[in-house]
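Inputs:
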Amino acid sequence: MTLKGNVHKFGDDINTDYIISGKYKFKTLDMNELATHLMEDIVPDFYKKVKEGDFIVAGKNFGCGSSREQAPLVIKYAGIPAVIAKSFARIFFRNGINVGLVLIEADTDGIDTGDEIEADIEKGEIRNITKGTFIKSSVLPGFMLKIIKSGGVVNYIKENKEFKL
Amino acid sequence: MTITEKIIARHSGKDSVVPGEFVECSVDLVLANDITGPLAIEEFEKVGAKKVFNPEKIVLVPDHFTPCKDIQSAELVKKLREFSKKYGVRFYEIGKAGIEHALLPEEGLTKSGDFIVGADSHTCTYGAVGAFSTGMGSTDIASAMITGRVWIKVPSSIKFVYKGKKNKYVGGKDLILYTIGKIGVDGANYKSMEFTGEIIRNLPIDDRFTMCNMAIEAGAKNGIIEVDEITLMYFEETGIFPADIIKSDEDTFYEDVIEIDVSDIMPQVSAPHLPSNSKNVDEYVDVRIDQVVIGSCTNGRITDLRRAASILNGHTIHSEVRCIIIPATQKIYQQALKEGLIDVFLTAGCVISPPTCGPCLGGHMGVLGEGEVAIATTNRNFIGRMGHPKSYVYLSGPEVAAASAIKGKIIHPDRI
């Protein structure tokens, strides 16, 4: 499975409140509406800058903070299929896989905003087309790859009628 | 094995587990609130589930936007209420409830040796009574409600040993803020934090709840404290008998052992915008504040209210400060009333909120405007956490928050 798109780069410790602020927005379950507030406290109008297929690329501990699944969901609803970070906070990681958001761990220092990249999630390779570089990345355990390919754990359970490690 | 590994092994039907291993575990309790519950219910319905694995083991607590602040939040809580009626799961209505992580232990629902999952990151609180408990998202929780099982990667453990002589006004909050300051907000990512040492063995149960509650702020999967006399006394109050006493093996492997001499720790304050920005309170000079919040799943228990009242007694809140006190549960509120604490707060000029998470996440009951500064006994001080993206939250324990409310600036309780 290969993904190709442009990069929006963020720093370390991007928490779930930055991804989607808790204050006004959990009054709705409408993810399309929530997606318009993606990252707005730290990058005003971020949503307008995102094109379908773009990547979020970040430093360490992406998604720290709350357990709200709305965080990976709004990223996905904003049209972003994958996040690449040096590391992920654990609850965000689980939630991301469960909702079918691709999460890749890699050294992201050589990737910047505006770069065009291509990620092969099975091989664990990221090609930076703009800079002409290759970066090795993590490969998800088999059962997580299957969940991602089904588009999330709910679809996975529907397709397979059960869940097995 | 560590306590955490032993609990995971037992719930996965194995004799032993090792860090890094993926296992499937049975769960003893599944929790969701008014933010995460409705989404879990949607997922539950999407899968086409017809029943829950065990209604007695599922708890829904509306606490974030309750008493409902607007139509949307009322609709979300309604969804929980209807689900509870349909499937017979526990639902704690306001007036009989409070903040989930203070409520569940009080209700005797969190036992040592239990494996507990909740759709709230601060579910790790129950490690204070020797349970393995961890936060997950709504889909995981939906799946746990259906099957009674979850997958988990066995975490490696870091042992924190607290020694020395505790300074005045240093409580669980100061110890955990100091610890997070030392290891960083991802210092225990994916890992288990086991709190031990002579200081912990003498630490009141409410302080232990505070410490385990904030394990997530270092990225941890769980925080845990071995069951001892103090835990057993608490279990006696909450009707848990006999208690399951699990200890870590003497020779077990820890990824790291961190010794902390508490003699050096003064009351801590974490500056915006990370809990790890913790420093001694005296390092803050002339930090003016507009609001004080004493409450939350971190510090809204009776011990916290007693400590706040001990500082506020006979004083008046600064003329330019709002001080909001939030007893975490109905029971804590009533106890505070009986002990005369509520009277102390009202006389000092505080406002008392019903039990709610409210301002901690900028929900309601004390949201900050642009440029405003708060000191709060809550757990997160991220940008915009308590309101406007250009507002500022400092984190502390109840005594420092109370002292600051009197002086109108961040201050050591000895200097009022």
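Chain B is about 30% helix and 20% strand. Flag for discussion at group meeting.
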